[in-house]
């Protein structure tokens, strides 16, 4: 009985909690090379959080840690804690497959499977056991609509996704991610391989997705961060230098290094 | 600084280049000439004896009645047993080494030895088969003992080919699958294997076409030379094409050499077909990413 009550409270506090990720004193090493130093950061629900910083500063590393994709790299060690929905993501109880179902990811280079558009989007539901054609059809349509690409592909769902343009492929990848109904979408420089028009389309899409999802986006491009994000984190050589409202960070940076970076003095 | 380029040295370099071109061309020609001579001789001798009956008959004491049926069916059955055993074992090993095994010195050790095994003379595999399958497991001189021996023989080749095929599946699409909460096995089954199948098939067919021409290990594990039945179970006696050819060539009368020629033509045609299929698969599926 008391257990149930405390569970109830836990759930409530999780729902009320404005932070979906809570990163605390987090360090990460590749072998003996430290890549992240003492990161403290709360990621707010239903906001777009941008992570900026020069190449090699640890943006991708931080992002990949959030859904534990970082574990694909051998010899990675960590210390500190990261909580998702108030539960430690590294605890034994946390099934990594479950975490990755709730925290989806879109990669830098569009990476559709060498399958049809339909099978790409249906992949996630299928691996989670959905077999009924009708249910899959619905999910595929809804996801493609959600990724603002339904109208462009609805007549060729059975064609190979490799036949699409880079920007379309990336939106199919976003649709594929939406199909598992995640709470959080991690995006690692999702537009860096795309032309300006596709980039704009994807930025529009990201802003729309904000209503339903929490989005963390790594970007090399400061203007992009300024255009779309609510919060911006500036990283440098594995440290989180400054993390605040996007407007504040760009108009009134506190740290000298942030100022130097956003005014283009290095990067 | 001015670099002085001597005209006469340049002429020498160009002359030397032509000499090497001619030398290498000659080397290539020598190989081709002998291969063609061999082929012409075999066709000359064998074509006359290559009849439908030759494909349908069992061995016989008279040249006119001798046939290769037992060898063709024996080789076919042997491959039908060998292929699944070697491919299932080989692909599993390759998957383990590529996808599951920790990257440490032990894995490395296995890796190097798989590659070494691919270079071990086939007769050694024959002795291994004789010791284990024929005697220790008391299978005797049976089809299954031959098939198991052949499986071991081509296993290393298939492992290496499958590893290469698995390794060539782009990391990005594996990450996409894992990133959606798929388990490693789901990723392998739905993403890695389908993408690797053409490479695995190509390697496997080439390995099998090596096995179908092997004689020595099968002689050791007791394939028959003359047999008047086709195998009706895995424990039957059997013979294979190269052994029949071998037994004909070892007869003193000249006509039997011609019969052997006919047998070689059959074997060559089958080998060429297998290689053509392998090349076709490779070309059809390459460059998909
Ligand atoms: N798989 C890896 N193994 C070893 N070191 C790595 C690996 N991935 C990244 N690093 C190192 O970690 C640091 C941060 O890299 P990364 O997170 O990719 O930076 P960013 O995404 O900001 O460009 C870099 O110094 C990089 O060399
Ligand atoms: Mg990066």
TrEMBL record, chain A:
Record-annotated ABC transporter domain positions: 21-262
Descriptive protein name: Phosphate transport system ATP-binding protein
Originating species: Aquibacillus albus
Keywords per UniProt: ATP-binding, Nucleotide-binding, Transport
PANTHER family given in the database record: ABC TRANSPORTER I FAMILY MEMBER 17
Presence of the UniProt keyword Acetylation in the record: no
NCBIfam families: 3a0107s01c2
Molecular function (Gene Ontology), one example: ATP binding
Pfam families cross-referenced by the UniProt entry: ABC_tran
UniProtKB/TrEMBL annotation, chain B:
UniProt xrefs under Pfam families: BPD_transp_1
NCBIfam families listed in its UniProt record: 3a0107s02c
Membrane spanning stretches: 20-43, 68-97, 117-137, 143-166, 187-209, 256-281
Record-linked InterPro entries: MetI-like (IPR000515), MetI-like_sf (IPR035906), Phosphate_PstA (IPR005672)
ABC transmembrane type-1 domain span: 72-277
Subcellular location: Cell membrane
PANTHER family: PHOSPHATE TRANSPORT SYSTEM PERMEASE PROTEIN PSTA (PTHR43470:SF5), PHOSPHATE TRANSPORT SYSTEM PERMEASE PROTEIN PSTA-RELATED (PTHR43470)
Membrane topology designation: Multi-pass membrane protein
Keywords of this entry: Cell membrane, Membrane, Transmembrane, Transmembrane helix, Transport
UniProt family annotation: Belongs to the binding-protein-dependent transport system permease family. CysTW subfamily.
Protein name listed in UniProt: Phosphate transport system permease protein PstA
PROSITE patterns assigned: ABC_TM1
